[in-house]
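Structure first, sequence second, as always.
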């Protein structure tokens, strides 16, 4: 196995908490504040480097949520975690209003699956907040993105999109060192024809020169490769995807199963640097 450069050997883990009734794998499990706080404590104890709090599902067909309803879901949890832990927190939202409320409550990273395209003031809000941002690739809109995604060369197109969004964000005043890129596995991509080549070509996204966040946890491409594996039965495939990301040099993986992901990455890293 090739030895990864020192700067890319320590892959961080972002634990996911969805305070939603309908997220594709953990919907309804943490939409009660008490259950969400317990889950946050658990993910921190399991070794999460960051936590990502979401109040709206992005799965195809998920019901849209108003900004106020989203704020009511995520802000109490962000406040509660902030009161007892210094772990960096992000908010998974497309809405500038929600990002503003989350940052005021103690989050420092805006994870936007639309790469700051959802609303006219998304870019200006990110610049004014001075927060870190995740710019993620998605073809189409969450509701319809899986209808008929098309690419000539998925890796080249995703890389070009992310490079362009980083330029646009910097031109709007977002500092270069606050930008993360994410290829958006499962967002407007055919389960195998697009997600697998994109995962195989992750090094070309890493080569853009920004830290890369990768979300493969429990996603449907795993169920396509391993038929019959339901969303809560995809741990092995999720870890395989995380390790493929680590080998390509991603900086962080987004995971529901933090304990197992941290362990897999630690062993991979120990082997890679032996
Ligand atoms: N995937 C999901 C949600 N947010 N954000 C980034 N940056 N990258 C991802 O791959 C990503 C993301 C989908 O997973 P989940 O949050 O579990 O489900 P849902 O959107 O249904 O709440």
């Amino acid at each position: 196995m090739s030895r990864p450069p020192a700067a890319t050997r320590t892959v961080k883990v972002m634990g996911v908490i969805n305070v939603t009734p309908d997220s594709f794998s953990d919907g309804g499990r943490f939409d009660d504040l008490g259950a969400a706080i317990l889950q946050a404590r658990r993910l921190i104890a399991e070794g999460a480097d960051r936590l990502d709090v979401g109040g709206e599902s992005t799965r195809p067909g998920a019901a849209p949520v108003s900004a106020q309803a989203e704020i009511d879901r995520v802000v109490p949890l962000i406040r509660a975690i902030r009161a007892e832990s210094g772990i960096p927190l992000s908010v998974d939202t497309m809405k500038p209003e929600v990002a503003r409320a989350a940052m005021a409550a103690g989050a420092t990273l805006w994870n936007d699956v639309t790469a700051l395209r959802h609303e006219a003031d998304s870019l200006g809000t990110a610049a004014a907040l001075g927060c870190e941002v995740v710019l993620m690739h998605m073809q189409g809109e969450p509701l319809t993105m899986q209808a008929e995604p098309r690419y000539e060369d998925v890796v080249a197109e995703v890389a070009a999109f992310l490079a362009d969004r980083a330029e646009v964000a910097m031109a709007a005043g977002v500092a270069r060192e606050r930008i993360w890129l994410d290829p958006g596995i499962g967002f407007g991509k055919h389960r195998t024809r697009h997600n697998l080549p994109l995962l195989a070509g992750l090094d070309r996204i890493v080569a853009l020169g920004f830290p890369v966040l990768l979300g493969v946890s429990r996603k449907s491409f795993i169920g396509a490769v391993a038929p019959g594996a339901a969303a809560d039965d995809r741990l092995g495939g999720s870890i395989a995807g995380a390790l493929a990301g680590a080998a390509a040099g991603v900086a962080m993986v987004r995971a529901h199963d933090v304990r197992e992901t941290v362990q897999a990455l630690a062993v991979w890293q120990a082997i890679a640097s032996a």
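Margin note: DSSP finds ten helices and eight strands in the chain.
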